[in-house]
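Most newcomers find our protein records easier to grasp once they have seen one. A record pairs a protein's sequence with a compact description of its fold. An example says more than a description, so a record of this kind follows:
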Amino acid sequence: MDLQTTDREEWSEVFKRLRVQGFGDFYLRDKYLVIRTPFISNHKFLAGFLEGLLSVQLGVKTLNPPLIFEIAEQ
């Protein structure tokens, strides 16, 4: 992606690129990450993918779309 994905300031660009690639609509709300219309509907798989990409721990708040994850720094 050619971005520092661990920098929170760059997350909007990361989410924009993921949206273009069809992963869904990503919204950052305070300490929550909301994903509307996710391409990957398996919350565990998507949480693992995003944890690795963003270097954060995510707590699952909903099991069905829209998916809501609570962000906890590592």
